Amino acid sequence: MSIQRVDAATTTELIRPHGCPVMAFQAMISGKYKIRILWDLKDGPRRYSEIRAGLLSGATGTREIAPRVLSRELKALAEAGMIARKDYGLVPPKVEYRLTEAGKGFIPIIAVIRDWGERHLATRPPGG
Amino acid sequence: MSIQRVDAATTTELIRPHGCPVMAFQAMISGKYKIRILWDLKDGPRRYSEIRAGLLSGATGTREIAPRVLSRELKALAEAGMIARKDYGLVPPKVEYRLTEAGKGFIPIIAVIRDWGERHLATRPPGG
DNA sequence: CGGTATCCTAGTAGATACTG
DNA sequence: CAGTATCTACTAGGATACCG
Questions:
Q1: What angle do CA A117, B8, B48 make, to 5 degrees?
Q2: Does A105 reach chain B within 8 Å, measured CB to CB?
Q3: Mean pLDDT for chain B?
Q4: Using CB atoms, which residue from A26, A29, A112 is nearest to B112?
Q5: Distance from CA of B97 to the nearest CA of A (A)
Q6: Per-residue pLDDT tens for B17-67?
Q7: Measured between CB atoms, which of B21, B113, B124 is closest to A121?
Q8: Cα(first)–Cα(last) distance of chain A, in Å?
Q9: Of B122, B37, B41, which Cα lies nearest the Cα of B72?
């Protein structure tokens, strides 16, 4: 059949229906930057490059984030209905991402998780 | 150097310190069954095989769960302080897992996530 | 600027066999 | 019973080059 390894990531990675809301949640946040993207957008719309810069500055490590990865996560979040993409149709391009109502409603959930995590999860300061 | 691919999963998979509580949370629940394991344990201690059976019956698909995977997730949850393992030292072996206080405190968080997910996430009934 | 196309590495889950 | 050992398939993430 010569299936040729089409870089599976690019083909499959978006479609994943889940019967359980908790599993759906887990799928929605799966990915290294999704929660941070949502959190960053809580203060208002941001452009692709601004999101990227924000992810670098608050960084987990201070590595580059591959454009491919950011692009994929933004698409998935849009697909999940958490964010909306607005293309201004300009050259050079200008595209903004902002939270949808569902996305805004998720922000308090992140806060709950953060508060609980601070209390119960062993976190180490970067370098500890 | 002949590094030989030592099955990285068996060596690395436990150690992962995170500075951010939300990232720590994400790491803690990462894995296909962790949340469901915690949820299953909310009603009391369970043995390895009982947990396994429970994961099969409520199943996402109705596949087998590899013992290797369950074992790894249980270890990770114990490492994260969410569950405790009790070995009765018998032959044939009897081992029970139960929620720690931190684990018990996580149950309401799951409920919050579930409620939010039901409202805002597109879930499809299995087969839809 | 906002991505896509390719290639690569490492980790995660499954199947199966086997052990104390 | 409660796992470990081994092998394989698939996927997420990173690096880099390039396009409209």
A1: 60
A2: yes
A3: 84
A4: A112
A5: 19
A6: 678 999 999 999 999 999 999 999 999 999 999 999 999 876 555 578 999
A7: B21
A8: 51
A9: B37
In order, the DSSP letters of B23-57 are HHHHHHH-SSSHHHHHHHHTTS-EEHHHHHHHHHH
Say how many C-beta atoms besides its own lie within 10 A of residue A120's C-beta. 21
Percentage of chain A beyond pLDDT 70 is 79
Chain A contact for B14, CB < 8 A? no
For A82, which DSSP code? Answer: S
Answer yes or no: is pLDDT of A67 > 70: yes
Encoded tokens for B26: 């994400």
Q: Does residue B3 carry a pLDDT above 90?
A: no
Q: What is d(CA A104, CA A19) in angstroms, rounded to the nearest whole number?
A: 23
- Tokens 């999963």 locate to B9
